Amino acid sequence: MIRNLAAQLLSAVLLFGCAPAEATDNINITSSANTEGMLQVHFVDVGQADFEYIKFPDGSCAVIDSGDTDDREFVVDYINSMGQSDISFAVATHGHADHIGSMKEILENFNVGSIIRPYEDYDSTLYTNMLYAIEETGTEEVIAKYGDTFEAGGASFEVFGPIGDGYSDYNDYSVVLKMTYGDVSFLFTGDAGKASEKDMLSMGYDLDSDVLKVGHHGSKTASTEEFLEAVSPAVSVISVGENNEYNLPSDEAMERINSNSQNVYRTDEDGTVIVSTDGNTINVETNAGKSSVDLSQNTAGNSENTNSATEDAILSEVIGNKNTKVYHSPYCSTLPDEKNQIEFSSAKEAEDAGYRPHKNCID
């Protein structure tokens, strides 16, 4: 029998930490001293699929989705490379292969305390095999119910979706989770689309989040303007495959995402994206290097000094972000990585090139 979500997961966290396992040489993850003891979310590059690995400050861990069927060996090796044998909980956001393709292998190769899945099943052999693996491994099965909350690894979680029971698009049954650690929050959306987003907005949830896992790989069927405005992320991450057959992310969605997010990362361009936080600041690490987002600088109360320091720069040199099409003052605390920078001689030149001003460093 499926029990209360919080009770199940509390039991799982107590029983299943993330004990060390023999590391593998197949995956090379760069770590640095300044992220030790922080909460880390790895948005792993698995091509046209989703796989998020969460390392909590207390050493426990969790996974959200598992990549596609072709990623089975890679996903298992990736978790092993983190030194993990136990996983507190896994989330299968919905039954499509690009999200649960390797979940059976995770269940069979690691001690998974609980697995969270949506109430709507999916008719496929792959999904059925995952359900068999849940039963055979004795993993606690949790049906996601909107409004449920639980804690794990020092972070708190709230289930935002799915809400409806008559969606025409199965993607809208995706499990949507908000994770909060200190003053920093992450929103994981699976493939939730416009209908699910509308339902979440209607519930009056506090959608405002610092980091957004963009829904449905940047498809135009997700990431509505109203939803993105409510989330207002400092960092958005799109899990998408290079030169994928669906031509994702779509130009339409990218325009909305760039207009509502300060920093946008894509796994097809940036590789695996690792976001670390101490509960106040955000560090982002990609194959190209590291950057920091100090969230304490992103409030109106801290804008006075920044604006006075950049008043002259507004009329002279500004620095654009090639990915987000946003231009910054040279003194901005959230300048993009050098590889993504483009210099303009004036704000007018930047705006003529299609760039818009950064809302926190330029009035």
Describe the 3D structure.
The protein is of the alpha/beta class and 363 residues long. The chain has two domains: 5-25 and 32-290, Metallo-beta-lactamase, Chain A (4-Layer Sandwich); 299-357, DNA Methylphosphotriester Repair Domain (3-Layer(aba) Sandwich). The protein is built from eleven helices and 20 strands. The strands form three sheets. Strands 6-5-4-3-2-1-14-15-16 form a nine-stranded mixed β-sheet, sandwiched between helices. A seven-stranded mixed β-sheet has the order 7-8-9-10-11-12-13. A four-stranded mixed β-sheet has the order 19-17-18-20. The longest helix is centred in the middle third of the chain and has 13 residues, at 125-137.
List the helices and strands and how they pair.
Blueprint (H helix, E strand, L loop, with lengths): L4 H11 L23 E5 L8 E4 L5 E4 L7 H10 L4 E6 L5 H4 L2 H7 L1 E7 L7 H13 L2 E4 L5 E4 L2 E7 L14 E6 L2 E5 L5 H9 L8 E3 L11 H7 L3 E4 L12 H10 L2 E4 H4 L2 E5 L3 E6 L2 E6 L8 H13 L2 E4 L4 E3 L12 E4 L2 H6 L3 E2 L6
Parallel strand pairs: 3-4, 4-5, 5-6, 10-11, 11-12, 12-13, 18-20
Antiparallel strand pairs: 1-2, 1-14, 2-3, 7-8, 8-9, 9-10, 14-15, 15-16, 17-18, 17-19
Helix pairs in contact: 2-4, 4-5
